[in-house]
Design brief:
The complex is a heterodimer of chains A (104) and B (557). Chain A is built from two helices and five strands, in the order βββαββα. By secondary structure, chain A is of the alpha+beta class. Chain A has one domain. By secondary structure, chain B is an alpha+beta fold. Chain B has 18 helices and 20 strands. The longest helix of chain B is centred in the first third of the chain and has 22 residues. The chains are: A alpha+beta (104), B alpha+beta (557). At the A-B interface, helix 2 of A face strand 5 and helix 14 of B.
Chain lengths: 104, 557
């Protein structure tokens, strides 16, 4: 699946496209590779950046794991999803019980 | 230390307001990211993995207590309570919001600081020997010359859009504590046989994807022609540097392709031309700057102790723990001072298992207080990601150590395998391929737990999370480079580098390792060293004597 990510323009926080807006939680990310709703990833990216809701957004590969969680394919995006692995006290809160096991 | 005049302050204040307007226009949508990016980068504002990152310049690593307190306040007010001191003697904040960035810059400007030219293809923050003005072995304090270069290079219209970024380093001793020859231009202030002060120019060094040691281009530039010669070097580079290929655009590539002799010829030709034009600042300006760096009024030696007296006093106080506490810190973390009765004291930002270079706001305030009370209001940031109290009375060391120890800042590990340089790596940096910090944490823990730190002695280990080499891995006795191997972290090990006066570039041992594997490999390498070392040999000495093969044999069999 393709999901969309970027950084919030004003705060710089990592955000994920949830189908109607931008969420701090990667688990909220939806498949943007499916254009069946009439709007593909490129259109969403262009519209959202033009509206200044997000900075330099882009599409990445991801998958849904056995627990139903969204997992970015590349390690860099997995680190982005939760925060620095060495400062877990600063991490994005997540309801994911597996914690950080999937990041590295 | 240097204090802004009205021109300095006006320039910095004006830049803050200019950036405030630019940021506002970006947030209002009147500037696109493509338009805004070069503007924010000119003010040190990057967009990293998790957020905007602000890099603040600390010229030649020198700052006072008030400035350190301002850095602490910014960490709390605009960031998440901490900052990261870098291998360029700067500080970075990892969580700055765009909507707060101009306010943070305004707060910096109030204490004569800024983030100008901490990014972009311009002349970056000038670095220097962190012991400048204090070291027993220096010819003179190199900082007045570094400050003159800073003023010359700030907003220099001709050098605002160079082919690539450009880094100066200035030292004034035979010992190199600043990786001088691994800069675009390294300058060593020297005195000739006639007692005249001048500058040696080393041009075309650097790390990154193509590491090179700068060759000597001129062995004596009269000091009143320092800026003219620097300008000649920059002009040649600006004219012929490769703008067609980012990866070949640094001056080291130009020097390599031209050859040192031809490069020197061109620089000398430009130098002769510039001498006829007259671009050197008036000598009075250097004299004015130098006044700010006049040595403080040190106390008479009779009012302090020497190190033997210190040991005698401390040995009678069990709370100081001479063998493994205070005494170990004195032996490891103090450095000879030019003035009898004084030393320079290194404040380690490398606690065992900690993040190299990170300091909390509270720690910054404690350090500032110590500087104000015990070091003539002076602090230094070291390129090794530690801090320094440059002028400390030996008699004051016990109370300083006690304060540092209580704050988690007294790790006695300068120049040991626990004193690891590590870039932010994949935990923070958008360019990184692998994490650096966890390796540093685990290696320092491993060696501390096994007690091998003391046994191994001086060993400089440096870790970079990508080929850009911010962690100086090319110059490590042991270097580690993180790479991306099919989406997983992999680490190349290299041996034999040095950034000191015996400068050399490390060589890769062979195939890379995963995280656990590279930590084990570091232990293996130190095993080989301990088995082979002769009396008094450091790791690098043994490596140079026995070569790579015994290490490769142990690593790969």
């Amino acid at each position: 699946m393709k999901i969309l990510t970027g950084n919030d323009l004003r705060s710089g926080a990592v955000v994920w496209w949830n189908g109607s807006g931008w969420s701090l939680f990667v688990d909220d990310a939806v498949d943007a590779g499916d254009a069946s709703n009439g709007e593909g990833a490129e259109e969403i990216l262009a519209r959202e950046e033009a509206a200044r809701r997000v900075n330099v957004p882009y599409a990445i590969d991801a998958a849904i794991d056995a627990g139903g969680h969204v997992r970015p394919a590349h390690i860099k995006d997995r680190v982005r999803a939760l925060g620095p692995t060495v400062r877990r006290d600063l991490a994005v809160p997540t309801a994911d019980k597996t914690g950080w096991d999937w990041v590295i | 230390m240097y204090q802004y005049d009205s021109y300095d302050q006006a320039m910095v204040d004006a830049r803050v307001e200019e950036f405030r307007d630019q940021a506002r226009r970006r947030m209002e949508g009147r500037l696109s990211e493509d338009q805004f990016k070069p503007l924010r980068l000119m003010n040190g504002l990057y967009l990293q993995l998790h957020a905007y990152m602000l890099r603040v310049a600390i010229p030649y690593g020198t700052l006072n207590a008030r400035q350190m307190e301002a850095l602490a306040d910014i960490a709390e007010k605009y960031d998440r309570g901490y900052g990261h001191f870098t291998t360029r003697q700067n500080i970075q904040y990892n969580w700055i919001k765009l909507e707060d960035a101009a306010d943070a810059l305004a707060d910096l400007a109030k204490v004569e600081m800024h983030a100008i030219q901490t990014s972009g293809n311009c002349i970056r923050n000038i670095s220097a020997d962190h012991f400048a003005g204090a070291a027993a072995d220096e010819v003179t304090d190199p900082r007045p010359y570094a400050e003159l270069l800073r003023q010359w290079s700030s907003f220099h219209p001709e050098f605002t859009y160079l082919p690539r970024k450009f880094k100066f380093c200035v030292i004034a001793s035979a010992k190199d504590r600043a990786a001088m020859r691994l800069h675009d231009i390294g300058i060593r202030i020297v005195q000739n046989a006639a007692g005249e002060t001048g500058a040696q120019f080393y041009v075309g060094g650097g790390m990154g994807r193509t590491p090179m040691i700068a060759p000597l281009v001129r062995d004596f530039v009269p000091i009143d022609q320092l800026i003219t010669y620097a300008e000649a070097c920059l002009r040649v580079y600006n004219r012929y540097g490769r703008r067609d290929n980012k990866f070949k655009a640094r001056i080291k590539i130009l020097v390599h392709e031209l050859g040192a002799a031809e490069c020197t010829r061109q620089v000398e030709e430009e130098f002769a031309h510039l001498l006829s034009v007259g671009v050197e600042p008036p000598r009075e300006e250097l004299a004015r700057i130098a006044e700010y760096f006049a040595p403080p009024t040190f106390r008479h030696p009779s009012e302090s102790w020497d190190l033997e007296q210190l040991q005698n006093k401390a040995a009678g106080d069990p709370s100081l723990r001479w063998d493994d506490g205070f005494g170990l810190w004195v032996r490891r973390n103090t450095h000879p001072h030019r003035t009898q009765g004084y030393v320079s004291a290194v404040i380690s930002l490398k606690p065992v298992g900690g993040i190299p270079g990170d300091a909390t706001a509270d720690q910054m305030r404690i350090v500032a207080k110590l500087a104000r009370e015990y070091s003539f209001d002076e602090l230094r940031v070291m390129h090794t990601q530690n801090l320094l109290l440059p002028h400390v009375r030996i008699a004051d060391l016990p109370v300083i150590w006690a304060a540092l120890d209580a704050a988690g800042l007294a790790a006695p590990n300068m120049d040991t395998i626990e004193d690891i340089i590590a870039c932010p790596g994949l935990d923070y940096c958008s360019l990184a391929n692998a994490r650096s910090i966890p390796l540093a944490q685990r290696i320092s823990e491993r060696f501390a737990q096994t007690g091998r730190t003391e046994v191994v002695g001086e060993l400089k280990l440096k870790i970079s999370g990508c080929i850009n080499a911010c962690g100086h891995h090319h110059a490590g006795h042991i270097g580690i480079l993180g790479v991306d191997r099919k989406g997983t972290e992999n680490y190349q090990l290299s041996l034999g580098g040095s950034e000191a006066e015996d400068v050399s570039l490390a060589k890769i041992t062979g195939p890379g390792f995963d995280e656990d594997g590279v930590i084990a490999a570091v232990e293996t390498v130190t095993d080989v060293y301990l088995d082979a070392r002769a009396d008094g040999e450091r790791f690098i000495d043994t490596y140079r004597r026995i070569g790579m093969e015994p290490f490769k044999e142990a690593l790969y069999g």
